[in-house]
Amino acid sequence: MEKTEILLEHVQNKQIPFGQHMPKQHIQRYSIPWKQMIQLGICWTVPFFWSKLAVLQILHPLGMGVLSAFFGSGHLFWVVWTAVFVGSFGNGVFLKHIAVYLAAMLLYMTLGRFLTKEDVWKKAILGSFAMALGGSFYAISQGGLHFYFVVAFVESMLVMGIALLLQKGVLVLTEHRKVMVVSKEELLSMILLLGGTLAGMAQLQNTILQQMLFPFLVTLLVLVAAYREGIGGGTAVGVMLGFLLYVTGRADFGFVAILGFASWFAGCLKDIGRWAAAVAFLMTMTIFLFYTKQDYLHEGWLPCMASAGILFCMLPKKIWLGGMREIADSKDRFVRMREDTEEKLKGFGMAFHGLAKTFAVEQKTETKEISELVERVAQKVCQNCGLCHSCWQEEVYRTYSMTMTAFSLCDTKGCLTMEQMPKWFLEVCPRKKEYVDMICAIYEQHRHHLIWASKLQECRELVQQQLDAVGGILENMAGKLDTDCLYLEPVQEALLFACRKAGIRIQEAIVTEEKANRGKKVVLRVKGCQGRGICKTQVLPIVKKIVGRQMVQQQPDVCHMTGGVCTMTFLEEPMYALTVATACAAAERGKPCGDAATYLENDKGIAMMAISDGMGMGERAFAESKAAMELLEQFAEAGFPKETAVKLINSALLLRRAEENYATLDICSVDLYDGYAEFIKLGAVASFICRGKRVISMHTHSLPAGILQQVQVQKNDIRLKDGDMVLLLTDGITDAFGGEQKTAMWLEEIFLPKTFANPQNAADFILQAAQKAGGTDDMTVQAARFWQKVM
Question: What is the structure's pLDDT at 762?
């Protein structure tokens, strides 16, 4: 950062030579705020048409109700105020409207400026109070008739109710949301706003608005609601629009019933498709209007409704469904949760890194320690000697140098004798024997101190590595939370519909995809299963059909019932399979084998086989190899990366005992979706892949785990083919055959012609051959047959 600032200062102060062009300056271009202009237009148009409405020909609370919802919205309040004020012209008693809106303006300038968008009840009460003030003023101006006071009270109550209903829809219009995701309450509030706008359009004496635009927008709004929300949403919107038209005097109860029934019918057929929903709505409206309300058909409604239906079917589906409905497993919600979780994990990782730094204490130089040793010898031997002043004052350099040389001899030869001391020292010093013995004693104490300090420093470094590894794991998890996981919401909705159609009550469904276009996972929570086994007989066929993949149930023989809800998990069946078998033999009869083996397969389609060879033979070797395998299993099941797991196992073996203990690690993980195999080795002998008539060797050069503090993980990758046989061996097998090269030759000449299909037979054959060849060490063979499934 400092270099950049210096460079910029140098360029700015540099004079431009004559003849060169001046550097181009960045010209800031003015951009039109289209989003703000559209928002202002909507916020003016909607209240304008709402102020045109009257309830039962005598009540006018709708304009003030919309205005109340905009209290606390800043400059938008004044935009809405001008809209309702202009819209009130020609709508009832103008004097009353002036009084109401002036009261609202005064209340906003005094009390309303302290409100926020979230003060729902306060805004509704303030709008109701403004309506009551304006209505009371008008009642007094008309001679104080009780009728006008009652009307003012009723209008104030209606204003409060309308303001509460419109609050959520107004928030959607005024908030700048990064992702447009609205709840059902917000959606219904927005539909109410649009419905009032349509009813206000119907009040205008305009042929285009009444006979063309109004039926077009009503049809489009009902079809969108029915297609998005189904029967409930379509019926609610149809009845709501019809009721608004009824109370504003633009329709009767017959039209309300027809519109509501047509909306219900469209919602019933929405799962068949958009064309079915549109045809159902249009046919229902046409038939009922033809027999009961023919005036609407003569006004040109039918062509406009048909145009809306065609537009609804032709436009892309994502316009009507994209990002507007809030569901339990919304991607936007998942993204926010993931980001919060990543931040927390990164914070935890940094905390562990900081804790690790506290253990990184640098070793101090030994200059002061050696000086202290010399002083201790002088204090204990020479303090009361008559020659102390002569040796440590007059001849201090000679005495100090001799003592340092004596300590050096102790360090190189392990001890100090009188013959190794200088001749002048033996002639002059009266306490030469005590001096030599004290040097040996103090050096021995110092040597033990250095040993323990070294062990302590080694333990500090190991703890530092462990803490750094934990911090790295947390940071790695923070960066990979969403790497390979996608939520397939369309498949989820199709699955819910199919199960409900089959009579299966699904409480929740989650469909994810772990990898690109493969590794799908379905989790269903079924209510009322009662252990009847419907997961195999009914649910699994539906899951296969909807997902379009070969699916299998996880733990098919176990019913996961909790609180009357059964949780079913279905996984995509991998394309490949791995059949693993192990054969082992101890070096001495009656004693345990010092090798250990394991095989794991997780729900992400990763199969891992591994073997470990402990140092030596017998129980001690078995303890080391078993500990390595148990740690590997725990780390793999927890989802740790294999490289991190290997490093942690290495550190754990280093801390296990004071004496040297190590174990080899030979790991092979296979992706059962694409067939890629990854080999990781620490001190292990070569592995072999038998393919057709040739043998492929996989080997690396590394030390076993538990020897070095830092290990470099080396990997070999290869893609397996159908019919390959993977062999993991310990050094007891290869030593019996004479080394890795001779083992490969034996496999090619003797083993391959046998064409073993069963991996257990293959492992037993190799083990028996090694025993006949004179193997004297613990021997383990792990054989795996890789094959492609018939899907």
Answer: 93
Q: Please state, in angstroms and as integers, the Cα–Cα distance from residue 209 to each residue in 56, 301, 490, following that order.
A: 22, 11, 38
Q: What is the pLDDT of the chain when averaged over all its residues?
A: 76
3-state secondary structure of 102: helix
Question: Nearest Cα to 488, choosing from 340, 606, 327?
Answer: 327
Q: Which residues contact 205 (CB under 8 A, 6 or more apart)?
A: none
Q: 564: left (phi > 0), else alpha (psi -120 to 50), else beta?
A: left
Q: What is the C-alpha to C-alpha distance for residues 403 and 411, in angstroms, rounded to an integer?
A: 13
Following DSSP, what letter does each residue of 109-169 receive, concatenated? Answer: HHTGGG--TT-HHHHHHHHHHHHHHHHHHHHHHTT--HHHHHHHHHHHHHHHHHHHHHHHH
Tokens representing 645?
């797991």
Percentage of the residues of the chain whose pLDDT score is greater than 70: 78
Residue 522 phi/psi, 5-degree rounding, is -120, 125
Q: Tell me if residue 52 falls in helix, strand or coil.
A: coil
SS3 (DSSP) at 784: strand
Q: What mean pLDDT do residues 277-284 have?
A: 84
pLDDT tens across 190-235, in order? 777 777 777 777 666 655 555 667 777 778 878 887 777 777 777 7
pLDDT for the residue numbered 658: 47
- Separation of alpha carbons 609 and 784, rounded Å: 9
pLDDT at 609 over 80: yes
Structural contact between residues 196 and 62, judged by C-beta atoms closer than 8 angstroms: yes
With a CB cutoff of 8 Å and minimum separation 6, the contacts of 144 are none
Place of tokens 């005590």: 434
Strand order in the sheet with 779-788: 576-585, 779-788, 725-729, 687-691, 694-698
* Cα 128 to Cα 65: distance, rounded to the nearest angstrom: 8
Question: Is-contact 87 63, C-beta < 8 A?
Answer: yes
What value, to the nearest 5°, has the Cα angle with vertex 102 and ends 98 and 105? 145
Give residue for tokens 């159902």: 280
Long-range contacts of 116-122 (CB under 8 A, 24+ apart): 116/72, 117/72, 117/73, 117/171, 117/174, 117/175, 119/71, 119/72, 120/164, 120/167, 121/164, 122/71
**Confidence band, pLDDT 50/70/90 cuts, at residue 315:** confident
Cα separation, 732 vs 612, whole angstroms: 12
Answer for the pair 67, 47: CB distance below 8 angstroms, yes or no. Answer: yes
CA–CA distances in Å: residue 603 to residues 481, 546, 575, 579, 742: 16, 20, 14, 16, 38
More confident residue, 94 or 754: 754
Instruction: Say how far residue 7 (Cα) sits from the centre of its chain.
Output: 42
Overall average pLDDT of the 641-660 stretch: 70
Give the Cα separation of 694 and 292 in Å (integer): 86
CA 23 – CA 8 distance, rounded (Å):
14
